[in-house]
Amino acid sequence: MSKELSQKYYKELVDLKNVEGVEAQFRSLLDVQIESVSDLEKWLEDEKELMFKINEAMTGHHLDFYRNTEDKEIKSTYLHDQQVIQPLLLKYEAKLSEKFCESPYFHELDEKRYGLMRRVRESKVKLFREENIPLMVKEQELCTKYSEIMGGLTVEWEGEEKPFPFIKSQLAHLDREVREKAYHAMMSAHRQIKPDMDAIMDELVSLRHQIALHAGFENYREYMFVEKNREYSVQDCYDFHENVEKHIIPAWNRLADVFKYKLDVDTYRPWDNTAKLLKIPPYSEVSTLMDGVSEMLGKTDPYFGERFNYMREHGLLDLEVRKGKGPHAFCEPLLVSGDIFVFANFSPSHDSLSTLIHEMGHAVNGYLEFSEHGPFDYHQWRAEIAELYSFGMQLLLLDKLDCFYPDEEDFKSAQREELRYAFTMLFNPLSGDLFQHWMYTNPTHTAEERDQKFFEISKRYGLNPVDTSGFEKEIGMSWADTLHYFHIPFYTIEYSMSMLGALQLLENYQNNPEQAVESFKKGASADLNQSIAKVYEETGVRFDFSEPVIKQMGDFLEKVIQDIH
Fold this sequence. Notes:
hydrolase, metalloendopeptidase activity
């Protein structure tokens, strides 16, 4: 393994290979006598300390695996966590939650500090079934298999074997012929892995449906709404789907006409529906990418730049493309170390620049929370809040893209692409959410029906203005490229909700930049025991996805794009 990959960036304060020792620590917590509210609070602190140690070790092993999916020793450690430690965690988390909820002092805890924890842990007790543990272990094994397949996926390109992310980056090429060639290459790669993807998803849907039935739910969707402790209903989601289709898609079609005109094409094809008006990638080396993002963050707020530089210096960023590296990009907190790690598999493209800024929004949010409140517990993390600051960071840095695009026209094109992306994040996650509603309320569907449904929903939303003739099957199977459907089901609608908030933040920034940045920092360091709406309020925006707000933000976004002459 290279020196870079062997660098230790997390703490292992608990030996997960010593299963008996880990279990003994759980049993010790279960044996504690709790005879007062202060005893219960002390017990919760001890429990949290143990969970943080286990979480950091498992997170580190997970990152090690994603950084090098081909290393057998790393894979063995990661699989041990998934197959041995994870079942133990599920078992004892349920027992500890039961002990907590049954304590006579449970309702005497301060509501402001412990109210959210009580609701989340009551849900855990409600959902837990011993017979689901092996199913959840199998679920993780299938997700690992998906990551291995995607991490090892390569495509022949101009006589060379290239990692799949490189081919995706070519969809942003200025030359339409190159984009089309890349699109065909991607579809060929999808066909190559299609049988494996179908088999994995078929089994995941079946497993998840069984998990829900065991817990007394009609389907996995109903189970997940309780598991996620959502502060909105299934019907609210359906209303959101419809309102975006009604008010955002017509505006998206108008913008597609603008891009069609600028591309000088008669027909808007699938390979045109990407970032493609920028003459060259914004960087060629990852070091250049990091230099520029550091400058952008520092210009927005000195703290933002300082955090990025700290992460860079301490080996907390792994960004370049490598064979055997896992797919996609994500941000992971290290709860004992008090650090954040950003993982990505980047090839030079505007999308990778945008994604790094997005992940740094998560990182800054995490560091601010660590600084203000200490490491956050699992029950406090809600995607609707986390994604507000990742999207918010992208929009706060919109006026600093000239760090990568000094040419005025390129600068404007880059801004248009970011705003076009904001549009897509209002509807693409919703189409993914609707797709999952369908999958898990129709658990006996076939692979063919799944592909047909994905194509149908895609045409209602992001592909509405695109001529997809001849590519119906290819588009139908492209759901397999979305990690969320495999690893984190029902985690997509949160993107759309938070983008509405981020657009409000952009509107505030245009009126008063300094105040908007301070509001961002205030919200990003807010007490996470509050409701989602309250945290948004502290950020100076509203957690509101009603029809009037959707129409207002769609109109605002369209106006901002048109204002970039």
